[in-house]
Amino acid sequence: MPEGTFVESIIENQKVLGADSGTLTVNLPTSNYLQGLLLRVQNVNGSTSNGSTGAGETIQGDISKIEVIGDGVTLFSTSGRLARKFEHFDTGDEPPTDETQAASAVQWAVFPIKFGRHAQDKELLVPAHMLSNLQLKVTWSFTDSTTVGYTTSESNAKIDVIARYLYATERSNTAFLKKVEVWSKTPASTGTEEATLPIGAGNGRYRRIMIYCYEVAIEDGVDISDFSLKMNDAQTLIEDRWDTRQIRNAIKYNAYHTKTVSTMLNDADTYNSYVSRISAVALTCGAAVRAASATAIAGDRITIGYSDLATPTVVTTDAVIYFTIRGQVVSHAVMLDLGTDNLADSLYVGKDSGISTLKLKMTVAAAGGATSIITEQLVSF
Fold first, then answer.
1. Could you tell me the CA-to-CA distances from 145 to 44, 107, 237, 268 in Å, in that order?
2. Are 289 and 146 within one domain?
3. Domain of 38?
4. 202-245 confidence digits (pLDDT tens)
5. How many CB atoms lie within 10 A of CB 27?
6. Domain containing residue 59: CATH number
7. For the segment 276-304, what is each residue's pLDDT rounded down to a tens digit?
8. Which of residues 327, 351, 367 is at a domain's end?
């Protein structure tokens, strides 16, 4: 393990993305050891708002892919939402974001990427000094509109990139954690879905596997009801129900879901919160002598009642409502733990591992859930 000091470097500072869609490639320094990256993306809402009924546009939903590639090898590859979801488990709540739908407001989200177990991990680091090329790629797609979108993304969409390195004089080939989305599908019918996970040469040790499943207005555990992880088609490593695994994850990681957001809604509108297992909703009106309440909750969808007490009558034009939403679990995801902080506990699947297949089987109890599998492996160059 190299000895040294962590330093942070601003690689991009308010860089204008220059288009409403595209891919930005950022060259990262090939020196020292890369511990992680922090991305912050922002844009400006339309002059009316950024959506009424539904969730509107959000930064984390508009970042379709984040990749880190070293000498042609993928070290990290997920969507923006799933990058944040992995960090949600590690920190106990959703990473910072401002998903305001207010007119002309700046909306932003951060996307943390770690190559170790935690921010101070000096054992697991990408040995950037060994690489001739190390790149970050960010793919986005914004909708420009004066209503349900952003305004002039060509100049208003910006990104910050901060790199965290271990500065050390010692040079060695350190292992690191690679996170990659390896499977995605929206099942069109009930039954069983089977994902074959990567094994053999070029792979290392599986530490964790995350399953993500989301369908608007559908509670967790309805689409994917249970799952099993099997080795060599016979030996069961993990078998569980979605409901029980999600609760066990919440206890183990002390991880729940708190969301605060400013919306533009009126009476009987719905808000798709991306929060599951909702236990509490508090609403505050942006105008005096008004009252708002949650009249129904279906999965992540919240239906509101909104009244003007001075009239009195229901509010029929969009107006500000502030939400505070509490979920009891990490929403729409379960984590399968195959190892601990003791790296020797992880499941070795590399060359000469004796493992011929590693398959994740999921019971699809209801069709329509957008499902992804993200693996975390301990690897080295």
1. 11, 15, 49, 24
2. no
3. 1-174
4. 999 999 999 999 999 999 999 999 999 999 998 999 999 999 99
5. 10
6. 2.70.9.30
7. 999 999 999 988 899 999 999 999 999 99
8. 327
